[in-house]
Amino acid sequence: MRVGEEPGADALEWPAGLDVDRLLELGWRPTALRQFIVKLHSRCNLACDYCYMYEMADQGWRRQPRRMSKMTVDRVAARVAEHALAHRLGDVEVILHGGEPLLAGVDHTRYAVRSLRSALAGVAGLTVRVQTNGVLLDEAFLEMFAELDVSVGVSLDGDADGHDRHRRRVSGRGSYDEVRAGLERLTSPAYRHLFGGLLCTVDLANDPLVTYKALLEFAPPMVDFLLPHGHWGAPPPGLPDPGAIYGEWLIPIFDHWYGAPRRETRIRLFGEIVRLVCGRPSRSESIGLSPAAMLVVETNGGMEQVDTLKSAYDGATGTPLNVYRDSFDTALLLPAIAARQIGARALSPTCLACDIAQVCGGGLYPHRYRPGSGFRNPSVYCADLYRLITHIRRVVAADVELLAKAAPA
Hints:
The protein is an alpha/beta fold. The chain is 34% helix and 13% strand. It is built from 14 helices and 10 strands. The protein has helices at 20-25, 70-86, 106-120, 139-148, 160-164, 176-186, 208-216, 245-259, 268-277, 328-332, 335-338, 349-352, 357-360, 382-406; strands at 35-39, 91-97, 125-132, 150-155, 195-201, 222-226, 266-267, 294-297, 302-304, 318-322. Strand 6 (222-226), helix 8 and strand 7 form a beta-alpha-beta unit.
């Protein structure tokens, strides 16, 4: 039995048996939340076939109000300020999310941002971001985002063919042309400073370099490549595969990006792996062992874990907490939340024995799920992560060696 687990924990899906009181006795302390994902709207205007919100195990969105009410917005803002004050946080980040958050409308979104800024004034710095599919990104939204200093991230899966394979309307019509129009408005001189970056889901059917160059067309400040969500009970397309097909897909992009004569963009996954192989901590939940410091607030005010967990099973993100009754500090002591803040203690024996455990960190938490045992397993992308990380480690080590040889004696 591991430290922090209750007797009989092996019969539960981990981390249900995690004894948080025991962890506290042993000196562990939770990490304050710094990122709050606020579900401003619970529905979407697209029907992407890989969506963890609508197409996977958890269908809780059906029970949620379509739009977060102004009263709930204000309560969320007050709770964020309360948490920031209690932990003396210098800054926090709020991501307006969905569904598709822009379905909430310009006026309601403006109300939400103003409520958050008012509550945090004099308490902590506030960064507000919105993650959108880009279809509704018109002049009215962009003017409002410019007025209130809101950063905009857009989902785009590469060129038209690659994007439209999955990101479609309910009718089956692709969304690329609409997303491109929104991006062209966002990247115009008046609004480019708002552009936060692009989010791209990996599809093995797409050529990696064609995909990457299609994203670079918009000169994004950052690109986030996401592996399709899945786990050992419902593997992503093509997995499990000992040939590391996703790792092999990503390596040509890394080599092009790393070897470019000038920096083309920031790629979050690659940048974090480079940081980790150089001995620095991760700033991303998808890699490394840094404590996860984010929480989701649903449209009804319910506090939930990161919503990619909806890919695991129905209710995987749920907690009994709500901003009307509970502080965010209460959430930090839930076993499911604490499990993502205890570093190597959350890893499986297989991961602990691995030579890249400190870099990989077990991979993205939802990808570790196995029905019957829970989340203390290697990632379903284990082979892919190992292939990618060891490749990057070799490339970086070779550069470090060259620098060392070139340094004056």
